Amino acid sequence: MKEPHNKPGYTDQSLIRNFCIIAHIDHGKSTVADRILQLSGIVPEREMHDRFLDRMDIEQERGITIKSQAVRVPWTFDGTEYTLGMIDTPGHVDFTYEVSRALAACEGAVLLVDATQGIEAQTLSNLYMAIDHDLAIIPVLNKIDLPSAEPEKHAEEIAGLIGCEPSEVLRVSGKTGEGVADLLDQIVMDVPAPHGDPEAPARALIFDSVYDSYRGIVTYIRMEDGELHSREKVHMMGIGMTHEPIEIGVISPDMTPTKALGAGEVGYIITGAKDVSQSKVGDTLTSAVRPASDPLPGYRDPKPMVYSGLFPVDNAQFPELREALDKLKLNDAALVYTPETSVALGFGFRCGFLGLLHMEIVSERLSREFGLDLIQTAPNVTYEVTGEDGTVHHVTNPSEFPEGKIKRIVEPMVAADIILPKEFIGAVMDLCQENRGQMGTMEYISTDRVEMHYRMPLAEIVFDFFDQLKSRTKGYASLDYHEDGEQSADLVKVDILIQGDRVDAFSAIVHRDKAYSYGVMMTKKLRELIPRQQFEIPIQAAIGSRIIARETIRALRKDVLAKCYGGDITRKRKLLEKQKAGKKRMKMLGHVEVPQEAFIAALSTDEPTDRDTKDKIRAAQKKEG
Amino acid sequence: MTYEIYVHVPFCLRRCGYCDFNTYTAADLGGGASRGNYANMAIREMELTRRWQETRGIDEPAASTVFFGGGTPTILSADDLVTMLDAVRRIWGLAPGAEITTEANPDTVNEYYIGRLAEGGFTRISFGMQSAVPHVLRTLDRTHTPANVEAGVRAADAAGPRTSVDLLYGAPGERLDDWRTSVETAIGLGVNHISAYALTVEPTTKMGRRIAAGTLPKPDDDDEAAKYEIADDLFSKAGLEWYEVSNWARAGYESRHNLGYWRNVDWAGIGPGAHSHYNACVDAGARPPLTRALSEKLTGGETASAQPKEQITGMNALRAWDISHPRMWGTAINEGRVPWGGSEEITPHENLEELIMLGLRIREGLDLNRLNRAIASSSDTDADGSSRLKPIDPTQLKPMVDEGLITLTRGSGGVGTDGVHAIPTRKGRLLNDAVIERLFDLIGV
User: Fold this and answer.
1) Out of A27-41, A354-368, B300-314, B387-401, least confident range
2) May I ask the CATH class of domain A203-287?
3) Among B221, B258, B273, whose Cβ lies nearest the Cβ of A567?
4) Could you tell me where the Basic and acidic residues compositional bias lies (chain A) (predicted)?
5) Residue B70 is part of which domain span?
6) Which of A382, A379, A403 is nearest to A391 (CA)?
7) B262 touches A: beta carbon within 8 Å
8) Interface touch B222/A583, C-beta < 8 Å
9) Taking the domain A492-624, which CATH number applies?
10) Distance (Å, rounded) from C-alpha A409 to C-alpha A394?
11) Helix, strand or coil for residue B94?
12) CA-based radius of gyration for chain B
């Protein structure tokens, strides 16, 4: 392995190029990044494994990068060794803020687009963000080795978007390595060198912070001004904490301690921070001995957008759930949770997430890494509900919805950008309309693809919008959204009553127009899922005290086995033992036994497709109208 | 202790579409278990069984009942049935006034046949009537006509044995009125005993497959409950009182053999697939040796060569079942071994469960004193933590009484005990599983 010439802490800014790669999931970012590591010589061929940068299992399986990392890569161009800081960015809409911090740590961005698919909505949104940060953009088409690649077409699309010539769009294959060396040369030529003040008090931007079970909190920083030395006390300007550094260093490609980090360099610092909330993304790190006076711009706290209840199927697992969340929190400053008690589901936690993917990742990690069997309630956004007396409630859970007359409900809105092939325009317009979307503009980004802009309630997006969008466009549409203020809306809380008792876990806040379909679907689903019992069980949906839908589970009249002679006794006994075991997995709601599966299935979202459900929804609406 | 013999005859003229019993339509299945040789094989099994009982210290009294079931026992000659009964008499003896029953397909018997059975000592004939309605009989693949049943019953009346008929309700396409017709026709025969069973659809049968495929409607629990109530009303009006969930009789005409199952007595099952039950068996886990290869072949490696699951602590109950296939069964007998395909040692805990589920099926009810004795002995002897079991106090059953599921009676007739008995009401009979589960919950099994 070749030893780089430029040493950390002693590398002139003119030799440094910091860049990130903007790409959509599956467009091959990690493969190209791996290839870069390999070409630079810092990862020997035999140690190369796919996706070197993505370390978490789930990331690898899902093909997405949740957390960014930063690698110091040597690259010789025209006889001079340059030091490239390659910063990996999260690829998903939920992590927009983290992406923006990663972009702020760079002077250039490689726009990597799959030559078989073209640019996607999230990529475009990140691209615009990079342009806003004044980054040099290097457009690249990947996967040109594939027979289905259409480099000409997509080069034109990109050229139209960033205002370059189609011929300036580089063509690479992460798989074969073709064009990757040219890309590195281009980075050296196009990406500006950093221009911080090496003599000023140290200022470093924290663009990522992760928990490592061996090292504790590892904080990734980009030095703007000055220098930081090992064993020099550091101060977090945003949260106002001072830490004793245990180690500073660079990643190349493993963590390598160094004596110092200088202006323009990218590296890491390990302090005694207990969890990532003591070392937050976006914060400015300075020397405690010679502190800077002003922090770098742009720091803010991550704000949860989506809430959901997580309950252990077996309530005895509650302490384990708490422990697991505490552990995840070490690595995830955006995750918030408070204990919650549900009449139906027992003890659990109300959790706040950045978005749907974040929510999915957390619940998947809880079940996979911690072996927890969980019930998750339907996702909820934050509503601002004003009662008639003028009291304002922030409702993140239907159970917090105030009783009585409501003066006003305000819900969060998002601006949604959707890129899709033009033949699906009609289908997507319908979908957005059904979800209370207000159409904005629409542009053709190429001859057959358009970008549509909608303003929509976040609540509609978090329900099942994305799945619907994918299914109605055969998977071709991509979606990006960001906060866009709020609006007041005619929302109601729909309760589900089993035998007259409200089951909190099934309550939902929905638009008045959708209350009927929610009520009908939920009551029907529960009628199918709850076994017949010795008494009749009415299942109702209600807005306040007004019933809007009703199903009845008739009383069980017979469960006896007709014959029980000598040869039937063993079989019958085993059957009873099996039923007894099944009962243990039932939740008691009042006197009604409800199988666990009913909660899981009833809380999953799907469209009303059968005629009976549609008829019932129409009938309920008509009665109302 | 009461001792009974059950003889299974695994042959039928044809297989009915709803039937999943262990029965075969071929006349000769090999292994010596042909129809013609069947009685000989069954008698050899009786002899092997008697020898096994002696080695296990089981000293059974003379049999108080013998029951020939199937299949179709009457597919064999009357002489064959009588010969097998003679063998029981020779090997174990018959108690005075023993009840000797055979099931009979109305198509296979006539007055001579029944006369021969009566001479040979049979006291009771149970006819498979199923229905009096032709379209229902067709759905059930039954070939007999209602007239055949009547002829059989009359022949028995003339020859002496008591009679019973079996009815089946809930066949696809059977209307409530069809069922009423069947019930009234059965009552009209003047029999003193009637069994009425809800059709149980087994997925592996022809009917089960047709229902799964949607070409036959699925039986409906509510329809069956309504039919049960019709039967119960009409039978009791005619003087036939229920004494078990699916059985009605005039007083004194109950099937003593079947009551034995629900009272959990000892019985030896003879014939392919027949189950045996012994309440107290020294070293119950030990079974007659089979060669390993044969036992695996016979049972699919099930239990034959496996060690008993739990540590044996003295005398436990044992249930064993014969190899199902007649040829394999015959091979085992020819090799001189009791032809068991599997067995289970019934732990005190399981015994308790059986006591409850069987006791709650019958009119004499569940004897709470007997139950509490079983709970105490289960707690003494069970090593699996079941000492947490709680004895039952009758006041705990009050909610179930209030819900109309059971009644509580002191000293019910028939068993000579004076404890409180829990007896299912009609509602409790229909919701028998629910009642059983509630008792399991109370005791903590």
Assistant:
1) B300-314
2) mainly beta
3) B273
4) 608-625
5) 3-261
6) A403
7) yes
8) no
9) 3.30.70.2570
10) 10
11) strand
12) 22
